[in-house]
What we know:
Blueprint: H1 7-17, E1 20-24, H2 31-46, E2 50-54, E3 71-72, E4 79-85, E5 91-100, E6 103-112, E7 120-127, E8 131-135, H3 146-149, E9 158-163, E10 174-177, H4 184-195, H5 202-215, H6 226-237, H7 242-250, H8 268-274, E11 277-280, E12 283-286, E13 292-296, E14 308-309
Amino acid sequence: MQQELTTKQQAVELIKQANHILLVAGKQPSNDQLSAMAALEIILARAGKQVSAIVTGEMPKIGSLLDTKRISRDLSGIRDFIIRLDTSKVEVDKLRYEVNEGNIEVVISPFAGNFSAQDASFDYGAYKFDLVIVLGVSQIAKIDAILEKNPTIFDGIHLINIDTHRSNELYGSVNFVDPQASSVCEMLVSVIESIAQGMVDNHVATALLAGIMSSTQGFTGSNTSAKSLTIAAQMMSAGAKQQEIVNALFTQNKPASKPDSAPKSETISEKLAKQGLELTPVGVKDSDTGEILQEELEQGDKQSPKKFKNPNPKK
């Protein structure tokens, strides 16, 4: 009897069978979602797949560290651009194209008659992808806004739903959901090993480590596990830029103040002087009368080595 495949194995099989894969995340993607997308896009391309990754919402802060040049901001890059020519009145003899100074020139040699500008029209073809992978999104309503604008875009196509949320709606044809995982990036490591073993370099490792560190708040969150720490160590061994990730995720970039222009704090002596008082070895005295107003407590005082008492408080 053949053993049933796990959801991870089902996802891997769909990826291996696909030709053109679309990667999407949430409307406002998290650092983990964007990191997972960046890493998976590189791996799938190296495995010989055509890959389209899209984020139409605002990029999270980790985008400043990751290579996002291949992540599209709209759908135009994943559709064929079609030039349509009406040949009902013209017989075509030859067709060729030339590339001149950055322009593609389609050259049509008519056998009889000729074309006018009115014979040409332009259009977009069908979307080219045959598999969709949604990263870290628990509900259909939270998927990137491309779905709202194109409600039927995923119809008739296998969709792999990879997520860590317990509340996931299980909306995919394959739902690889693991609430025990620290992050989507952690989940992707085993998928990547099954698809393209040995292809994790410093770029992929940096993206995966960034997602794990963001989701675990730098390994301080309750979702930090032995597995996430082990994977993090593996990514660092593969060349992940851990310190750059820390700077991108957790360091507040504040402009440095010039030493000369920095405001100086008043000393205790300066504050007392404004009140007509003076700090002496025996205590605080009135500058005009010389009267000791406060005596220093003995060093045995447990509250503070520099605590004062007033021997003659005014009534």
